[in-house]
Design a protein that fits this description.
The structure is a homodimer. In chain A, about 30% of the residues lie in helices and about 25% in strands. The first copy, chain A, is an alpha/beta fold and about 350 residues long.
Amino acid sequence: MPKVYAVIMAGGAGTRFWPASRSSRPKQLLPLAGESEETLLAATVRRLAPLVTEDRVVVVTGEHLADATAKAVPGVPRSQILCEPAPRNTAPCIAWATATIARLDPDALVAVLPSDHFIADEEEFRRVLARALRSAESGRVTTVGIVPTRPETGYGYIELGEPIEGDTGAKRVARFVEKPDRATAEQFLAGKRHLWNAGMFFFRARDMAELVVRHLPELSSGVAKIDAAAGGANAAEVLKAVFPTLPSVSIDHGVMEKAEGLAVVPGEFGWNDVGSWQSAWELGAPDEAGNSLSAGAVAIDSKNNLVRTLGKGKKVVALVGVNDLVVVETEDALLVIPRERAQDVRLIVDALKAAGRTDVL
Amino acid sequence: MPKVYAVIMAGGAGTRFWPASRSSRPKQLLPLAGESEETLLAATVRRLAPLVTEDRVVVVTGEHLADATAKAVPGVPRSQILCEPAPRNTAPCIAWATATIARLDPDALVAVLPSDHFIADEEEFRRVLARALRSAESGRVTTVGIVPTRPETGYGYIELGEPIEGDTGAKRVARFVEKPDRATAEQFLAGKRHLWNAGMFFFRARDMAELVVRHLPELSSGVAKIDAAAGGANAAEVLKAVFPTLPSVSIDHGVMEKAEGLAVVPGEFGWNDVGSWQSAWELGAPDEAGNSLSAGAVAIDSKNNLVRTLGKGKKVVALVGVNDLVVVETEDALLVIPRERAQDVRLIVDALKAAGRTDVL
């Protein structure tokens, strides 16, 4: 088998975990999976081994996150932490990282993965990845789709096509489907022919390069310029000049939805996109009363609450007679919101932005 | 008129304002009246002027609160801050303070006042006090009773008797009534013959001394020993030896309920006993949405909440979609409780005590 590299997309800003998440400390750099102190990014890198070792991991992030990202994954060579001068969505990110890997190893197999998801069954995850990589090895760009467990309207779906010969369990991708309405999502769940698109892609480096040339020629030539300068004296200068001019487009819209012969491997490994404090509560191993509490928190006559104290001097947090709340405390901020409104954290972020309180954003 | 002295009872422990109140920082040392940073004790002393000036104020507190109390009322002579070696309820407190004042000025008039209440109309308060003092000057031990505004079951009541001749508005005290049940409290409110007992007493020093001799002779002789030693080399020693042996009894039970010829002056001056966070919310000048917020707090879709940030590094507090909550944050603790359960703060204090967390009590 060719060598396998991983591209971890870690450029997310993420305001849904305010006040824990900040522009300088986005979701992937937070320990949001239960009791563990491990950041989501560190967990993403760790669980790839032994399939992909740290020396073959490429992390793509934003310039302002370079140091924090390097600190979170100390085993990843610093030269493999690529820093985008400006956010340009996923297609430039993946094209650039793929070009970088192809330069190191033209025959490389590449796994592209988000940096900010949670996976409960890591062994099964690696088994599915191994199948997806074998599928990719045969020249098909392959994705892993998550077997739905609820009629979710917040995700895109992948419609399954005909099975593909071989032992990878892969099927053809019939089509990508935008976020559905509730009724459609329920049909998808019942029909068992649709999977969640979790943003995981597997390919030979040269296959992706060809797809980018064909579907996003502008991106391809821009990345070629950046890659040609890489390692040279003017690498930073070229990157800074060219990257912000690349077309800002997602890999889904820009490449996947136009490509043919794609494969998808279904995955069932306790995937969670850690989309809000609600997810953090689900992952937080709630106690008998349904409370997921930080150490030092006391809950009396209180059910189904999430309490997170992230400040340095850990506080005693006391809840009396409150249910279904999210209470998150940091050094400089405190949030109280019902769990079911967890998505509305953005309202606070917007209000603070409008009030010029960038110091706490 | 004889000189007027005030005895401020400031020995309260008070757990109902946890986490703001601590054993080392009880209620009277907290700024609980609205936006002001003034402690309840400081407000108590301030609003007596010009009726009673600071140099004639005696504050009785506990030994462990000596420095904090002195700091809260810097205008009160340090020699007039009396520190009880052990809490022995109000009768020993008042008897000792009265003996101390009588030594300075045998003809003194004394006003005994709690240190931890709020009064909205301070001018009217002083007018009522002046009437009560004139009543006391004639040799009647006098109290001020608060005209009830609701059928409160948490206070003792004073039943009004016949009017007393003169222009003080005083009436005889028919009797003291223990905390009533709801139906009785409603009768009291409708009948207009009962006032709330707010623990304010007015008397000539020698009248109180006589009452104590008659009704609590043991207390009288103990206080005489302490007073005889006062100012001498062994004052502290005698205080420490004798005070803890004094009978622990309230002035109401020990003296007032047994005394004859008591007078009461009705008071209507926006009195509030600041009994819980609920009271703090009422006094906190809630905004249009009913929220009383600390500076830097943001409330979205949220009504009738109290937010107090008492830590040094004032936090941004964000509420989204929550109603009728009390949120109080200090350097080392955070409380979230519905307003209507504010009295249940003691449950937390009990739980923390049981868990050995005296560091936050």
